[in-house]
């Protein structure tokens, strides 16, 4: 290791470097992912609106099914369009596994406990907010992954996040806890695949009771 001229004598830089080194030592595993020039699936569809959205959803289903069928099952956690990337062969793949964990584990697959960090607000299942009421800890489950998948369907078909019409995070949280589900877009998106049949599946994914949600298979 060669010191950078002038920088190694700076106490603040040295302390920052040592703090980062100590934090890195606490990691049990690291993931290195290839760079995806096409970006995440939402950005890709914004630039390529005529792409086969059902094919991309099929890729997401395959990836999520692989994780859920793994022994022991892996809970994805924080499933959203921004964490789904498009490969050079135009296949959608799941990325950013920082909140993923084995189903029966209290730790993420990267070794850091999830605690109350359960994902991105609008994509979270209502039961993940229970800790705000009882002071406990809520962790993602396969059922909460299914709820998030319904939100991903909405994203891919409309290009908008769930609850896009609500501006305040607190209002979104309250709506989800009260059983409100994402609103169906007023635009005619049948050309993209958002018909009554798909919307019915999405509504099942958003069932307030986790046991009533479909399995990814």
Automatic annotation (TrEMBL):
InterPro entries: Kinase-like_dom_sf, Prot_kinase_dom, Ser-Thr/Tyr_kinase_cat_dom, Ser/Thr_Kinases-Pseudokinases. GO terms for molecular function: ATP binding; protein serine/threonine kinase activity. Residues 1-217 form the Protein kinase domain. SUPFAM superfamilies: Protein kinase-like (PK-like). The keyword Cell cycle does not apply. Keywords: Kinase, Transferase. Signal peptide: none annotated. It comes from the Eukaryota. This is Kinase-like protein. It comes from Rickenella mellea.
């Amino acid at each position: 290791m060669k010191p950078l001229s002038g920088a190694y004598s700076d106490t603040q830089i040295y302390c920052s470097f040592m703090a980062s080194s100590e934090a890195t030592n606490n990691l049990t595993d690291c993931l290195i992912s290839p760079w995806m020039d096409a970006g995440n699936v939402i950005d890709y569809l914004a630039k390529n609106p005529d792409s086969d959205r059902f094919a991309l959803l099929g890729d997401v289903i395959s990836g999520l099914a692989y994780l859920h069928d793994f022994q022991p099952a892996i809970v994805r956690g924080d499933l959203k369009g921004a964490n789904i990337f498009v490969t050079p062969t135009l296949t959608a793949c799941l990325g950013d596994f920082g909140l993923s964990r084995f189903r029966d584990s209290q730790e993420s697959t990267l070794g850091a406990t999830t605690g109350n960090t359960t994902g991105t607000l609008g994509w979270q299942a209502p039961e993940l907010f229970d800790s705000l009421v009882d002071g406990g800890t809520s962790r993602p489950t396969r059922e909460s992954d299914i709820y998030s998948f319904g939100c991903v369907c909405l994203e891919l078909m409309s290009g908008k996040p769930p609850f896009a019409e609500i501006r305040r995070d607190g209002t979104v949280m309250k709506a989800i806890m009260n059983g409100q589900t994402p609103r169906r877009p007023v635009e005619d998106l049948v050309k993209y695949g958002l018909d009554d049949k798909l919307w019915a599946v999405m509504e099942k994914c958003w069932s307030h009771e986790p046991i009533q949600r479909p399995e990814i298979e």
